[in-house]
Amino acid sequence: MSNLIGLILPFITVLIFVIGMGYRFYIWTKTPQPGKMTLFPTPTPGGGTFISIIKESFFFPGLFKGDRSLWIAAWVFHASLALIILGHLRVFSGFFDRILINMGVDVDLMSSTGGGAAGILILITAIWLLLRRFALRRVREISNASDFLALLLVLAIIFTGNSMRFGEHFDLEITRNYFAHLFTFSFAEMTLPQSGIFWTHFFLVQLLIMYIPFSKILHFGGIFFTQSLIQKS
Amino acid sequence: MSDENTISHEKVREEVINAIKAIDNGPQVLKLYMEMCARCGTCAEQCPVYYGEPTKERNPVLRSDLIRSTFKKHTTIAGKLLGALDGAGDFDGDMEKWVTQFYECTGCRRCATFCPFGIDNSVITRKGRAIADKLGLTPDTMKSVVKTSLETHNTDGASPEAFKSAIDFLEEEMKDEHGIDIKIPVDVEGAEFFYVPPSGDVLVNPEATTGIAKVFYVLGMQDNWTMSSKCFDGANYGLFTGNDTDMKADNKPYVDEAISLGSKYMFMGECGHAYRIMKMMMEKGKWWGDLPFKVVNCMEWTADQIEAGRLEFDKSKNPMPVTYHDPCNFGRSCGIVEDPRVILKATCQDFREMYPNRGENWCCGGGGGLSAMDDIHDFRMNVSGRKKMEQVKDTGAKYVATACSNCKRQFMQLIEYHKADFAVGGVHDMLSRAIMINGKAAERIDYES
Ligand code: SF4
Ligand code: SF4
């Protein structure tokens, strides 16, 4: 089982994700758009538009005005997610550790405080987002099974991830070693990590990544398209 | 049901499904909206209709789902594989529900302002209406407005003679007010400015038009502007029925008239959607290629004159508290928000903002052409217009100025229905009452408010 998840699936996942998203972006770019959709107030055309689209995509100011409590949940969720993704780079290679240590950063301390906080915050906000789907009428009536499933999947990933951080001993060296070999296709010398929870986590993550191009989660890329539609004047 | 009916029912289904499948080829905006919604519910929170009555039918996402579900079922991979789990589902053939729901969105675009992705549900609404229109299912009230407008070039079906006598009447009114002849030139070739109001500003609430005539008079530009006895109504309901062919056919005579008059400026009156079509769609989209004239807006122009100190006002003529309602098409869709305020602050003693305002203002509840539909009067009064009434009440204003005939009609009905204690009118109406000509503002005092 771990052979399948650890040796074969990662390549399929990357392939599906890259081709899927690439195809989406290609199609979106190619689909004709006669006429503009300008929505005022607009930023000053040119550089201002670009900055404003970036701002919308990273800070969600429209949502900030539209639904403050959702903004808090959504922003903290996404910001934690970004931190966590960055933090995972450490698991793939010791390279980043060396850079940080050279800069005089206490890597372990940063990981346990920053990473730990992000892990807890994302758990809280994901639960919040899930409860919100039940609690608010206007959200409940528009929620499909896939909306719940996506959130449950994310929650399962967070849960397994957090239990590795806070619970059972996580062997960084073995995991790094595994990824180093995976990335260089040197399967012969590879030793697979022996943690069940690691494989569960890794499997679910891959499931999620493969699902992205086919689900609403592609909004992380699509937002640049939809925002530029209304912001260009 | 007879065989014939069954067949036509099947045919309707087929046509609708095909039209939805075609979204896969564009426009980009619709395709993105089919795939991007995160179903977060923010749009519902900010929609005047859902605010007025939070039912499933009025949730913007579920209205848009009438199209989106079918799109998913037939075109997206997740929709095909997951089916209902992903919210995919086939069109149920219920066109009555379809038409009702798509004619309950005011097209105000407020949802797009607050949606984290800027998803504009009005685009989906317009698509839904376009599909209905192709099948001949546009509500009769709307159909007849479009038909009248295409036949007579104005939505009231008024003849050039009726128009001219209305203009004569306005000139007499101004003579009574100021004791001098202030002209409203008609069909003058070579006039620099070709004024295109909504017909309501000639036939129903004509003070906006007298206001404009007075501005030209004070500037000594009486001979530089004109109206047309054939084209005096910028209103264009093709925007609302989703029929692009009608919209362009309705638009063309105005462009032709501007060219044949030899005007330099198409001078749009206080009508939000008319200006949006002329400026944002026709001119920017180059419907008819490069044109020998520019589209401008009367409020922009008057505000410039005020800021240049060329006009004087006697504010005591407008002592009551006045607020401004940003029409969605002027505010969110054209970005004309400061000019009307310049005019109102210069002409009224007690100008008050309503909140929120400008690009975030709430729709009057009559947008998207709904204002003309008396068949949904109750809905407009109790549902879509509810928020607006609360907003106005909070300002304590006794006069709501707004630059849109459709907003005005909706407001007039709201006022009557809710027995509210304020009046509604245009922006240049306030100017018309306060502008000083030869050192004096208008004499007449028999205004309604
Ligand atoms: S606000 Fe936007 S993303 Fe959220 S439910 Fe409405 S359309 Fe979808
Ligand atoms: S356009 Fe206006 S009325 Fe229509 S869904 Fe959006 S907010 Fe509601």
Automatic annotation (TrEMBL), chain A:
Listed GO MF terms: electron transfer activity; heme binding; nitrate reductase activity
Membrane topology, record value: Multi-pass membrane protein
GO CC entries: plasma membrane
One of the GO BP terms on file: anaerobic electron transport chain
Domain NarG-like: 67-220
Location, primary (coarse class): membrane
InterPro entries: Heme-iron_electron_transfer, NarG-like_domain, NarG-like_sf
Keywords: Cell membrane, Electron transport, Membrane, Oxidoreductase, Transmembrane, Transmembrane helix, Transport
Location in the cell: Cell membrane
Superkingdom in the source lineage: Bacteria
Cross-referenced Gene3D superfamilies: Transmembrane di-heme cytochromes, Chain C
Protein name: NarG-like domain-containing protein
Transmembrane residue ranges: 6-27, 70-89, 109-130, 142-161, 196-214
TrEMBL record, chain B:
Residue ranges constituting the 4Fe-4S ferredoxin-type domain according to the UniProt record: 28-57, 96-126
Residue ranges of coiled coil: none
Keywords: 4Fe-4S, Electron transport, Iron, Iron-sulfur, Metal-binding, Transport
Signal peptide: none
Superkingdom of this protein's organism: Bacteria
Protein's UniProt keywords contain Iron-sulfur: yes
A Pfam family matched in the record: Fer4_8
InterPro entries: 4Fe4S_Fe-S-bd (IPR017896), 4Fe4S_Fe_S_CS (IPR017900), Cys_rich_dom (IPR004017), Helical_ferredxn (IPR009051)
Keyword Transport applies: yes
One Gene Ontology term of the molecular function aspect: oxidoreductase activity
Identification of the protein by name: Reductase
Organism: candidate division LCP-89 bacterium B3_LCP
